[in-house]
Amino acid sequence: MKDCDPKHWDAVAEDYASSSEPITRPYGLDALAELGPRRGLRHLEAAAGTGGLALEAARSGCDVTATDSSPAMVARIAARAAGEGLANVTATVMDGQALDFPEGSFDLVCSAFGVMFFPDHRAGLSELKRVLAPGGKAAVVVWSHPDRMGHLSDWRELFRDDFPEFGDLERPAAWRAMDTADSLAAEMQAAEFRGVEVQPLRHAWVVPSSAWRPEEGRCHPFFERMLARLGPDSPDRARARLTAAFDERYGDGPATFPAEAWLAIGHR
Ligand SMILES: C[S@@+](CC[C@H](N)C(=O)[O-])C[C@H]1O[C@@H](n2cnc3c(N)ncnc32)[C@H](O)[C@@H]1O
């Protein structure tokens, strides 16, 4: 299953809000702070996942449209908005590479850890630019290089030590294309955003246990593909070995990993 396959994201939607959203949230909140959401502004959250950031924009008073290609993710956004009584959220299933909105529909557009999983990230960025109103502002957040992400550099090291036949992490092409400040800025400029600025965002991932790390990999198809390369029973076997290795290294309690992302701001 590919990173872009909505079925993959459907399958992990139930766990995403509790396992992955707490990790992505601080970076997303930085992006939102840069965008400056406020009452009456039209905000698009593309590849919104379970909608943590979209709901935050709605709490600021924006009229929020949250889109994602996974119906299960979108259902969760709608349920959370209804649960909070946020009538200013519309949640819609939509491919971020072909947004079904007229040009200039939004004052703010945001995609956090979304475009980096699209098969065609250039289409995703161009679409964000197209639907942005003149004078509007866009925020795009992507993970940095795995060497600059504590959790991932551990994975790589353990894979190299324990499973040398694996080679390196298999990252989506879009992520590889945008994992430095310069390459992300260049991609934003190619999409014709003006006044592009890229800054690093650094937070610590606080994860509950050693088992969390190999388990959380289930949310990401590229980890699953790596594990599957060992053979039919390999994902569970590799997960057990990784958990034991992490236990040995960090103990079984919560652990903290510094991790870097990039925030690109662009204007129309
Ligand atoms: C890592 S999650 C990020 C979710 C959320 N923005 C966050 O910050 O936690 C990636 C999301 O991108 C969505 N996605 C992947 N490809 C997509 C596409 N082509 N169009 C729209 N959404 C897509 C997935 O369904 C998933 O919800």
Annotate the secondary structure layout.
Blueprint: H1 6-19, H2 21-35, E1 42-46, H3 52-59, E2 63-68, H4 71-84, E3 89-93, E4 106-112, H5 121-130, E5 132-143, H6 150-162, H7 173-177, H8 181-190, E6 194-207, H9 212-216, H10 221-228, H11 234-250, E7 255-267
Parallel strand pairs: 1-2, 1-4, 2-3, 4-5
Antiparallel strand pairs: 5-7, 6-7
Mind explaining what this structure looks like?
With about 270 residues, this protein is of the alpha/beta class. It has 11 helices and 7 strands. It has helices at about 5-20, 20-35, 50-60, 70-85, 120-130, 150-160, 175, 180-190, 210-215, 220-230, 235-250; strands at about 40-45, 65-70, 90-95, 105-110, 130-145, 195-205, 255-265. α3 (about 50-60) links the parallel β1 and β2 (about 65-70). The longest helix has 17 residues, at about 235-250. The chain is globular. The two termini are about 35 Å apart.
